Amino acid sequence: MKINQITVWQLDLPLHKPYWLSGGRLKFEQLDSTLVRIDTDEGVSGWGEGCPWGVTYLPAFGKGIRAGIEELAPLLIGKDPRQADSINRVMDLALPGHPYVKSALDIACWDIAAKAAALPLCELLGAREPDPVPIASSVSTGTPQEMLDEVQRFRDLGYRVHSCKVGADVHQDIERINLLAANERAGEIIFYDVNRAWLPREAITVMNSVSGLTSWFEQPCETLDEIAQVRRQTSYPIGVDEGLHCFDDLVRIQRDGIAEVVNIKINRVGGLTRARRLRDFCLATGITMLIMDTGGTVVSDTGVAHFAQTIPAPFCQGVWSCQEMVSVDPAPGRGVRNVDGCFSAPDLNGLGVEPELSLLEGSPLSNRLNS
Ligand code: MG
Asked: What is the mean pLDDT of the chain?
């Protein structure tokens, strides 16, 4: 089986409402997504999506994905998409770094491999764990009461895992966290995502001032060095999200005892091939995971659901559903959908979702590489 064509579509994804992160430091109103279809000489096609969370969240941007794919696509023509490690070596030799550029291509190759094997993607990736995977809500920074109201709104939709965004004024953060923690219900997980906003001094102050938490603080500071410093002077578990880019980061996190939880964002780490290596290291060393993408439509979410479904429940605390935050759905009625606050990977061969081409044709940019 050989790749004979790679097609790329750009798709704007306006958010339903503006979203603030990092204590209001970062504002987002629209995402720039890239959808990729890889065709083969045997008539099997695969889909992938790459969608950074705006341009300010990570060192990644939508135009960068398309420019990178333009570099890589000619080198993938003629290669067997079922050999994901080999495909990744070709991409890494041609374009060192830039993992977010490679993710959509990698996912599309896995979609093809699973279709060729007549297996749902999660099963080709190693397992289909029996329980649906809980979706973590995403509670934007606001007043303590606004955030509690938002948690309640998610509860009414069936969510039991909540990612509450903090990281502004120290006093306000303590008020936010204390109110949310006091209203946490049995069987619920409320964790506090700082998105790098605190300096170590601020993180140490807040984390030593709040009480009664049963969860963890996610990415309290910018760098792993800073988080290691916070670790030495606080006692709550810590999660690393934006600080995990590659295998070396994960090895350091484990070796130095920096965190007990990591977020594997498939687009950020470079696709499913790399995510799988990270997953296996976490399973071997007792690190808990959240599985997410950096953004995107139901196509991204479906890849996340398949990957998360391969992880035993105690190790996987949840996923995130970006599709509910964006106002565009290129695959209506298809792919993974929220059922009582959970995702279950589709029981179809491959990824199990393909966009409706008529909904992509009207996008501002549509080009075809290497037909
Ligand atoms: Mg986070």
From this structure: 94
